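Lab notebook, bench 4. Still working through the backlog of constructs that have no structural model yet. Next entry is a single chain of 334 residues. Request: give me the structure tokens for it.
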Amino acid sequence: MTESNTKNYEKSIFQLRDLLTQSLKAVDQEIISRLNKSIPLINDIGKHLINASAKRLRPLLTLAMAAQFNDNSKKPILLAAAVEFIHTATLLHDDVVDESNLRRGKKTANIIWGNEFSVLAGDFLFAQAFELMVETESIEALSSLASASCKITQGEFQQIQIAKKPETSQKDYFEVIGKKTAELFGASCKSGVIVAGGDVEQQNAAYEYGFNLGLAFQIVDDLMDFNNSPNKMGKNLGDDFKLGKTTLPVILAWQKSSPKEKQFWIKTLKELNQEPNDFQSAINIFNKYNIFNECKKKTEEFISESIKCLEKLPDTKIKNYLIGLANENIERSK
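Model written out:
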């Protein structure tokens, strides 16, 4: 990703952050307060990962959706903090499962403190998230985020099941990323509308905006494993490939590959028998079949659907920023 494209992607995020500065500060204060009440080690692990996230994208979506309805209560703050805790907990667990060593440009918690403490810290953050949700006194918001949390775990299971299987269908792939990534985007948006008093149609529209945005977000993440520098990604280039992860570029390439090329995928992904030049060979196959552009077309389809869903929400400056955020997501892969 070039510096110019990074700035383009971040433009709407920064505009939203500027507009919601006070609410975001309140979310950060809530997060810090909850962590400070825990034992020192949990505090250290939680802050290590949470402090590395400057954008707070998912909680920002919660706040933005609520702000469209002029909600000045504390409920969106509590939900946004809960969303960040849920997201951070999943990252802690992900890094243990994936045996990752770099997250957001820093050493992962499991590398610093070990798997046991990382898993337990993730469990603690999940518990804190549910405490925050209960404090909103909104059964509907609690139900939405609780459902998303369950589906995230299901998605993790299914992702492991399809790992090292380049023959995986697109249907199965989208089911996995729908649960693992898009559900939390959707619930983050929907819960903000719920506590702000939006009607059911608006709640569902917010969910669909977030869900489709989440699908597009994950596809772009898949692409970034092959065409971005580590300092832009916050993780090592080619990590997914080295782990044999079944991502959309791999699935599309498998479907178009010759028998000889399929043997390459079997060797490198199924058997994880990789040589230094194999990563570049994979990129060469992607380029041969125009895979990156095909992935970007899929991304654009989800972004288009995402923006359509905003038609049912109030016409505000925030809505325009949400449209911009969706469109600019594509820039991350360039």
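Notes after review: The longest strand covers residues 102-103. Residues 3-333 form a domain with the Farnesyl Diphosphate Synthase fold (CATH 1.10.600.10). Flag for follow-up if needed.
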